[in-house]
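Troubleshooting log. The previous structure file for this entry was overwritten by mistake, so regenerating from the original sequence record. Sequence copied from the archived sheet and checked twice against the printout by T.R.
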Amino acid sequence: MNPQHLLTFTVVARLKSITLTAQQLNIGQPAVSGQLKLLQTFVGEPLYERKGHKIELTAVGLGLLEYAQKIDTCYTQALEYVRSLQQISTGVLRIGATLTIASFYLPNFLVELQAKHAGVQVFMKTFDTSETLHNLYNLDLGFIEGSLQGYELPSNYEVIAWQQDEIVLIIPENHPLATEFKEYVPLEVFGQHQVIWREAGSGARHIIEQALLNAGIHAPINIEVTGVSAVKESVRAGLGIGFSSVMALKNENAGLVARSIGSARGLVWQLNIIAPKETLQSRVTQAFLALCMDHKQ
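Regenerated output below.
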């Protein structure tokens, strides 16, 4: 059974005319008659009869019409859904992002997306880089900290350079280091003071650890917390010195000061987007990616 024949059958039943059906469907009358004949042959029972210039359904035809109308309704709803997708008035965006990116970078972009496309649903989960790669096929976009060195990316995905930020030392405003170093602190301070470390999967922690490794400096890990907010509160409480991205300090920085690390240039932090190749991106994904890249640094 050809579903198109059922859709044509519903129009004939409604208009009771092959001529009017042909006009509405923008096809020839022989095409309409041919579809009805093929459908009737498949059923094996008369579906309609001609009464003058009108078409009247038989009892079997009326029974079949009940199911054909359900297909017609589903087809119409599917067509409306596709049209709404084309206008980005609906759809789903699934994002995986590190805790810092999800907390301090993406909210403004998501507000702008929903202001422009109010019907879009957004689902965002926080992952570190390895978790993002593990869940890649369940995501539309992944936002990661640092490079993918040591990771293998599927061939149908690409890494897009996005934002650059700086990892800075954060200390209480009355800390001796704040007085001694006005612009930047040497890396040696990490071996001389107790450090509030981020969780093991943190991109910021990886940047600090790599810089210390390159400099041959050992910094013990005695305190480890999850998230930059926990680092800031621990530093405020006087538990030690900490580190954070500059972006994460734009809010909630009362009582804290920041210093570049290692040099006046500091430790630069590259944030990247993992995205499917353009031909595999949904319209919602393309729209959000465009918003993000409009504010690329």
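The domain at 3-86 is CATH 1.10.10.10 (Arc Repressor Mutant, subunit A). Archived copy saved in two places this time.
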